[in-house]
């Protein structure tokens, strides 16, 4: 695939800048409504915390038609309004459409390539739909890299209990059990990383896979951990963006994220097979309580989708789910809303059974992953009903219990993985 660096206007811009210390990338697609705030927060972060560093902001766009790139170019910060009176080196700004498969991962690849060409020391990427980003996010994602010696800073946020349900029910417990690091938001979307790690990412041949789409976040986190880069997490406060109803159609995102996680299990089997339990990682930043916007959920619709899945997909699941799980699902499909519940150990065994079926090629991978959607929605409905009255601390305790269930059942996963 042709590199973005070969384009004449990018070459000219890189030639103008030469080298840089810090680069922050913002992927976008039709985010004109929200991206101006994100750009101003990044510019203020550069000025406030890195006034003597050469900083570059890169907007990697997927072909927006709503004027997103023009908003990025026009966004500017009034330094007097944020009470800055010290000398500030001007930041550079690059806006460019990316090449390749439409998706966030392709946008990130362009950001990595420009970071490599500019030989930067530290990078960060932030989502373009953020409403809660502040200049402090840039400090918290970049300083662990340039002053703390870390290669990767994952985000840690407070999120509404029904925002990030793919993270809470699958990706966090699975990643933690496999690789032994308690990185709470492995697909958070806002990360800091070293120039060395950006160059390492570019050596990997993954840009024609689901990594080019929503799979990029779990791929970045797992690649950093599995290759022994030094990782930490930074507390950023609240994540307020445009969350989606977990009962709405998240199947494309679920498919791409889970397929990337399962592909990484193949790549790094020799890493995760010997890891037992998990350990915390250093968390940077001062933690505090925040107010959060509610996320609306429709539990009745979610349970209906689960029951429809039982009716239409049970014969596919019989090919790889244990008999006891099949019996449980048949019973669960008959439960009333008030009785509906999918326990942690059952859910962990379901996810591991899907990973094993993916590994052994028992079912076409596309059909397999699509058939996970109604089970994920059913598990999410169970979690919503279980935590309806719970505060944030109680919700975290329940997610911790789910993680322990994944860790406890990992030995069964390893045993069956080796049975080919």
Automatic annotation (TrEMBL):
Belongs to the glycosyltransferase 2 family. It comes from hot springs metagenome. InterPro entries: Glyco_trans_2-like, Glycosyltransferase_2, Nucleotide-diphossugar_trans. It holds the Pfam family Glycos_transf_2. GO terms for molecular function: glycosyltransferase activity. Keywords: Glycosyltransferase, Magnesium, Transferase. Residues 24-204 form the Glycosyltransferase 2-like domain. This is Glycosyl transferase family 2. The keyword Glycosyltransferase applies. Its cofactor is Mg(2+). Coiled coil: none annotated.
